[in-house]
TrEMBL record:
InterPro entries in alphabetical order: CSTL1 (IPR042921), Cystatin_dom (IPR000010), Cystatin_sf (IPR046350)
Domain of life of the organism encoding this protein: Eukaryota
Signal peptide feature range: 1-19
Organism: Pipistrellus nathusii
CDD domains in the record: CY (cd00042)
Domain (Cystatin): residue spans on this chain: 26-136
UniProt KW keywords: Signal
Protein name listed in UniProt: Cystatin domain-containing protein
Length: 139
């Protein structure tokens, strides 16, 4: 067999493997609605709010108030598509007690957002990546 024949066989094998993998992805069925309980998403929500606080120009930290909607899709990891309500806390960004921050109570400083985000995670490797995020002020 010549080199050209081997090249053709390798291309055919690669095409078959790719087709089998794509078929497996299609059987996963896309995003499935999840319970609004935070217990299955705690680490994902924590990653989201830490990311939000790191890129925000706000002096104060924000925290997740409520999980409004949650969808999950299995791919090579897990993709979470979620909507949350976040609110400004009384803790400033450089504060050391960020785990127990009460919500801002002063009327002028109160601020909340509704955020939609898409996070890809490989939980068994503790890997998270924010793929998309948009927030609008809640009224």
């Amino acid at each position: 067999m010549g080199a050209e024949c081997w090249r053709s066989l390798l291309l055919l094998l690669a095409a078959l493997v790719l087709t089998a993998k794509l078929d497996r992805f299609q059987r996963w069925g896309g995003f499935q609605e999840k319970s609004k309980s935070q217990k299955n998403m705690n680490s994902t929500l924590k990653f989201f709010i830490e990311n939000y606080n790191n890129v925000s120009n706000d002096t104060y930290l924000f925290q997740v108030d409520k999980l409004l909607q949650s969808y999950m899709q299995l791919t090579t990891g897990v993709e979470y598509l979620a909507t949350v309500k976040i609110s400004r806390t009384k803790c400033k960004k450089n504060s050391t007690k960020s785990h127990s921050c009460p919500q801002q109570s002063e009327k002028k400083l109160k601020k909340s957002f509704i955020c939609d985000f898409l996070i890809y995670t490989v939980p068994w490797m503790n890997y998270y990546e924010l793929w998309n995020n948009s927030c609008q002020e809640a009224h």
